[in-house]
Amino acid sequence: MKSAVADTDGVSQKVIDSLREQIGEPKVLTGDEVLDERRHDYWVLSHLQSWREESLPRPGVVVRPESVSDVQAVVRTAAATNTPLVPFGLGSGVCGGIRPDPSVVLVDLSAMNQIREIDETNLLASFDAGVQGLVAEDAVAERGLTIGHWPQSIAISTVGGWVSTRAAGQFSTAYGSIEDIVYSVEVVLPNGERVQLGKAPRAAAGPDLRHLLLGAEGTMGIVTGVTLSLRRQPERRAYSAYYTPSLSAGFEAQREIVQSDWFPPVMRQYDAMEVVRNFNDLTQGTANERGLLLMVHEGPSTRVAAELEAIDTIASGFGLEPAPDEVGPHWMEHRNHVPSWSQLFERNLVADTIEVSAPWSRIEAVYEAATASLRELDAIVIASAHSSHVYRTGINLYFTFVARHEDSADMEATYLDCWHRVMEATARCGGGVAHHHGAGRLRKSYLVHDLGVTGVSLLRSIKDALDPQGIMNPGNLIPDE
Ligand SMILES: Cc1cc2nc3c(=O)[nH]c(=O)nc-3n(C[C@H](O)[C@H](O)[C@H](O)COP(=O)(O)OP(=O)(O)OC[C@H]3O[C@@H](n4cnc5c(N)ncnc54)[C@H](O)[C@@H]3O)c2cc1C
């Protein structure tokens, strides 16, 4: 597998001049502030390194294309000069998908921000790839519609980023993750050709080529446009919440609910530690080391009423007891609050979240093994989890770890060790190591657990076929040889 490195001293003036000539001078940026702001995404390790004032490399040049033909011109210039390209949405990725160096042309898609079409008959909306998530959702909401894709990062991510990382929103249990919502993807391939993948509600026209881009994290081409399917806004929304006597009872209740064909869009089960962290004010004195299952129900009023009743019967059958009514609305109101990484670093703490999944029969083993392995570390202050995406076949887990070090120099090794422990424990217990944040540079070496050696080699072959020069986001996603 090739990896393009055009010029270790940086993108040549000749390439910069050529880009300016083709897409216009104002769209080709080399100012210090612009380059500094695009050194990395939201990955904790990049933030830690820059907080410790380690000088992270920056891209050689930033381009801000405004049209598909601009993107094609940039890609053709890069291909002709063997110059690496790194696509950039809004930089909210959390796995190190963006770590350019001076040899890189960083392609910032945020100026490709047009809402192309909202089709109320076929319930489809087409966007430029750089449209910010909440702008996309608000545009369809004005017509009484919704995309139904609500990642916590909706206000800091793009629709092209959603496709490129294979994202999942908080309402995925009923509405699906991005792969279920995407109708078509427009992409500029590494040779500069444009292709539109996806034309009808369903196709048996060979393998689904849209999936080459879903989760490709900038390694297979540049997504320039996305058409998403829509749904009407629900007639009614309701909440329910129950204490779970044990994680096991909570999982069994959830399995029964979805396998009985009830699909509340939001189903979240918190372990006892996370109940204290997230709902202490509401549950104090009543949680008693119990977990919590909260649900949001949406749809036609009659279905919501029937769902609430059926789920209440299932929940009590598994020994779940009603929790305060305010739990659901409280979650809804605070659901997108995230502490900044630097606030934690300043308190000598390093933290992250790790999302994995497993079939029902393996999920408790994954939880037990991963939290036990984290707690073996002296530095660990918190090792907890909740689940947030539910399927007939299984469920995800979203671990949180927090570690403390008096000397910030030790944080990086501990951080990577925590990740290693959760990845290995998950794989050992039969789980999948990456649920919805992608792989980036952080998780790529663990992909072998999900794909196997032959699967990794197939992934490399696909990359080689699409990008024989290796110019698209080299070093990202594809496991090293
Ligand atoms: C606070 C917070 C909460 C989050 N919550 C969620 C959540 O609920 N669900 C979830 O799934 N994720 C979540 N994420 C992760 C992140 O928001 C998603 O991965 C998101 O899809 C990234 O979008 P972006 O536009 O910011 O992409 P970026 O971070 O800019 O890029 C991500 C990767 O995709 C590539 N890329 C970006 N745009 C394109 C394009 N147009 N063409 C080709 N490649 C491209 C980049 O090269 C990079 O490898 C969260 C992140 C944060 C910081």
Any overview of this molecule?
The chain is of the alpha+beta class and 481 residues long. Among the domains are: 112-232, Uridine Diphospho-n-acetylenolpyruvylglucosamine Reductase, domain 3, CATH 3.30.465.10; 236-333, Alpha-Beta Plaits; 341-436, GMP Synthetase, Chain A, domain 3, CATH 3.30.300. It has 16 helices and 18 strands. It has helices at residues 13-23, 32-37, 44-51, 68-81, 133-141, 159-165, 172-175, 178-181, 247-259, 272-283, 301-317, 327-334, 341-346, 360-375, 411-428, 447-466; strands at residues 28-29, 61-63, 85-88, 105-108, 115-119, 124-128, 145-146, 182-188, 194-197, 222-229, 231-232, 236-244, 266-270, 291-299, 321-322, 349-359, 380-387, 394-404. Strands 15-12-14-13-17-18-16 form a 7-stranded antiparallel beta sheet, with helices on both faces. The protein has a 5-stranded antiparallel beta sheet with strand order 5-6-10-8-9. A hairpin with a 5-residue loop joins strand 8 (182-188) and strand 9 (194-197). It starts with 12 loop residues before the first helix and ends in a 15-residue tail after the last helix. Flavin-adenine dinucleotide (FAD) is lined by residues 41-42, 86-94, 97-98, 109, 129, 151-153, 157-158, 160-162, 164-165, 167-168, 170, 217-218, 222-223, 338, 436-438, 473, 476. Residues 41-42, 86-94, 97-98, 109, 129, 151-153, 157-158, 160-162, 164-165, 167-168, 170, 217-218, 222-223, 338, 436-438, 473, 476 line the site of flavin-adenine dinucleotide.
